[in-house]
C-alpha cells in the first residue's frame, strides 16, 4: 500500500482492535485506482461517533450529526464517518437526519456513483459490491441503483456527475445521462452554496470543456444562478481555449461571454453567493480585461491592478484573441516590476505635507493633488522624494 493510506493503517487497526470494522472509502479509493495523487483519505467505520471518541483520545466534532469525527492520531488528522443510510429524503434535498448502521454494504449503497462506492480494507483488499472498478475501467459515471431514484433523493448528485466529468474525463452511463436530462429542474431546490462548490470544481477540472458542453446539452445550465436562457453565450464561450485558466479567470471569462454590464456583474456574482473577496478579485480581472481589449495598459492601470491581476488579464487576453505569446505577458509584468512605487503608502509625501506647503485645510483638493503626484511619480515626471515633490509642485503651481 502507498501513502497516504499507509500512515492511516494504524488508525484502522485501532478501530478493529476495539471490535469494529473500518475501511478506506470514497474519492481516495477511486483516485488510487486511477493512479491519481491523493490528498487525504476518508475512513468509514461501524463504530458510532461516541464509540470512535472512546477509541481515540484526541478528536474534534466536525459533523457529528452526519456521523463524522475528526481524529488526530500521530500528528495527522483523519475524518472518520460512521456507516450510515440516508433514509428519509425530503423535497429532493439531502436529508437532515441520517441513520447509523453497522453494515458496510448499506453505507456503500447510499453513495452517489459506483466509482465512489468502493471500500478498501487495511490490507488493500477491495470491497466493491456495485462493480465500481469496472466502471472506472470503462471510464463511466453510473449511479448506485436507479439513476432517477438517486437524483430524486438528492438533486445535487446531477451536478456532482458533471463535475466528475470535468475532473476525470469520464462519460455518463446511458441511464444516468437520460435520468439527468429529465430531472435537472429538481436542481432548483438545491442550496446555491452546494451548487457553487460543485460548479467551481467543474470550472477547474481538466476536462472542463467536455463538462460545460454537457451542461449545455442536458439543459442543466438553466438551473444555475444567472444562466437561465443563456445557452448561446455558453456555446460561444466554448470556442476559447480556456483549459489553462485559473478558477477566477474562468468566472471572468463567463462574465465576458455573458456580456454583462458592471452592475449586473456584481449581482451575478452575488447570486452565486461567492465570498466578497472572490467577487472583488473576479470583478477586478473582468474590469481590466474589458479595458485591455480596447487599449494597452497605462502605467497607472498596471499600478492599481497589481501583479496577479495583470497576469490574469494578459492570459485571458491571449485566450480571447487566440494568440499565445508569453513574451507579451513577461513584458507587461516587467514594466510593472520596474514601477518606482507599487502602493500609495510608498509615496514620500503625505496629506499633512500638502496642507503645510499650501497652507490650506483638508478637502477634495488633497486627494486630487495626491493622485496627480502619484501619477507623476509613476510616469517618472517627478522623483519619489519629499523635497523634489515639493519643488515640482511649486513649479506646477506657478505655471
Ligand atoms: P473529491 O476528490 O473531489 O473530494 P470525493 O469523491 O471524495 O471527491 P466528496 O464530496 O469529498 O467527493 O464526497 C466523499 C464521498 O461521499 C463520495 O466519494 C461519495 O461516496 C459520497 N458522497 C458525497 N456526496 C454525496 C451525495 N450527495 N450523495 C451520495 N453520496 C455522496
Ligand atoms: Mg473528498
Give the number of domains: 4
Order of strands, widest sheet: 1-2-5-4-3
**C-alpha end-to-end distance:** 79 Å
Mean pLDDT: 94
Give the CATH architecture of the largest domain. Answer: 2-Layer Sandwich
Specify the number of helices. 20
Ranges with pLDDT <50 over ≥5 residues?
none
Family: Belongs to the tRNA nucleotidyltransferase/poly(A) polymerase family. Bacterial CCA-adding enzyme type 3 subfamily.
Pfam families: PolyA_pol, PolyA_pol_RNAbd, tRNA_NucTran2_2
EC number: 2.7.7.72
Subunit structure: Homodimer.
Give an overview in words.
The protein has 399 residues and is α+β, with helices and mostly antiparallel strands. It has helices at 5-17, 27-33, 49-55, 104-109, 132-137, 147-153, 156-168, 174-183, 192-204, 208-218, 231-237, 247-258, 262-271, 276-294, 299-305, 307-321, 326-337, 351-358, 364-378, 386-398, and strands spanning 22-25, 42-45, 59-63, 68-73, 76-82, 84-85, 99-100, 119-120, 126-127, 140-141, 171-172. It folds into four domains: 1-138, Beta Polymerase, domain 2 (2-Layer Sandwich); 140-224, Hydrophobic Seed Protein (Orthogonal Bundle); 228-339, Methane Monooxygenase Hydroxylase, Chain G, domain 1, CATH 1.20.58.560; 346-398, Serum Albumin, Chain A, Domain 1 (Orthogonal Bundle), CATH 1.10.246. Helix content is 53%, strand content 10%. A five-stranded mixed beta sheet has the order 1-2-5-4-3. Strands 6-7 form a two-stranded antiparallel sheet. It has a two-stranded antiparallel ribbon with strand order 8-9. Strand 3 (59-63) and strand 4 form a beta hairpin. The longest helix is centred in the last third of the chain and has 19 residues, at 276-294. It is elongated. The structure holds adenosine-5'-triphosphate and magnesium ion. Magnesium ion (MG) is lined by residues 26-27. Homodimer. ATP binds at residues 27, 30, 111, 154, 157, 160, 163. Keywords: ATP-binding, Hydrolase, Magnesium, Metal-binding, Nucleotide-binding, Nucleotidyltransferase, RNA repair, RNA-binding, Transferase, tRNA processing.
Amino acid at each position: 500500500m502507498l501513502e497516504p493510506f499507509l500512515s492511516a493503517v494504524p488508525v484502522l487497526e485501532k478501530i478493529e482492535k476495539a471490535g469494529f470494522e473500518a475501511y478506506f472509502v470514497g474519492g481516495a479509493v477511486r483516485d488510487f485506482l486511477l493512479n491519481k495523487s491523493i490528498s487525504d483519505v476518508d475512513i468509514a467505520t461501524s463504530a458510532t461517533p461516541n464509540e470512535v471518541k472512546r477509541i481515540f483520545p484526541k478528536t474534534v466534532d466536525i459533523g457529528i450529526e452526519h456521523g463524522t469525527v475528526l481524529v488526530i492520531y500521530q500528528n495527522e488528522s483523519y475524518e472518520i464517518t460512521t456507516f450510515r443510510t440516508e433514509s428519509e429524503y425530503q423535497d429532493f434535498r439531502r436529508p437532515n437526519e441520517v441513520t447509523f448502521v453497522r453494515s458496510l454494504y448499506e453505507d456503500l449503497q447510499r453513495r452517489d456513483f459506483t466509482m465512489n462506492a468502493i471500500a478498501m480494507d487495511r490490507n488493500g483488499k477491495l470491497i466493491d459490491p456495485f462493480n465500481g472498478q469496472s466502471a472506472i475501467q470503462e471510464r463511466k459515471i453510473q449511479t448506485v441503483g436507479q439513476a432517477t431514484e438517486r437524483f430524486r433523493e438528492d438533486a445535487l448528485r446531477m451536478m456532482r456527475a458533471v463535475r466528475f466529468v470535468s475532473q476525470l474525463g469520464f462519460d455518463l452511463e446511458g441511464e444516468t445521462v437520460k435520468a439527468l436530462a429529465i430531472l435537472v429542474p429538481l436542481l432548483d431546490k438545491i442550496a446555491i452554496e452546494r451548487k457553487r462548490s460543485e460548479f467551481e470544481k467543474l470550472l477547474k477540472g481538466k476536462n472542463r470543456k467536455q463538462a460545460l458542453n454537457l451542461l449545455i446539452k442536458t439543459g442543466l445550465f438553466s438551473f444555475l444562478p444567472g444562466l437561465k436562457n443563456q445557452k448561446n453565450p455558453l456555446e460561444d464561450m466554448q470556442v476559447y481555449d480556456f483549459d489553462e485558466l485559473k478558477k477566477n479567470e474562468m468566472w471572468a471569462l463567463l462574465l465576458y461571454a455573458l456580456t454583462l454590464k458592471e452592475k449586473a456583474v456584481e449581482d451575478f456574482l452575488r447570486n452565486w453567493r461567492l465570498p466578497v473577496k472572490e467577487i472583488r478579485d473576479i470583478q477586478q480581472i473582468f474590469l481590466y480585461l474589458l479595458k485591455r481589449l480596447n487599449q494597452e495598459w497605462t502605467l497607472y492601470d498596471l499600478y492599481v491592478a497589481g501583479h496577479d491581476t495583470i497576469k490574469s488579464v494578459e492570459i485571458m487576453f491571449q485566450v480571447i484573441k487566440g494568440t499565445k505569446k508569453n513574451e507579451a505577458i513577461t513584458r507587461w509584468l516587467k514594466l510593472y516590476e520596474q514601477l518606482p512605487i507599487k502602493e500609495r503608502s510608498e509615496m514620500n509625501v503625505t496629506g499633512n505635507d500638502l496642507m503645510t506647503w499650501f497652507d490650506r485645510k483638508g478637502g477634495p483638493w488633497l486627494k486630487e493633488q495626491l493622485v496627480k503626484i502619484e501619477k507623476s511619480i509613476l510616469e517618472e515626471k517627478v522623483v519619489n522624494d519629499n523635497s523634489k515633490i515639493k519643488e515640482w509642485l511649486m513649479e506646477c503651481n506657478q505655471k
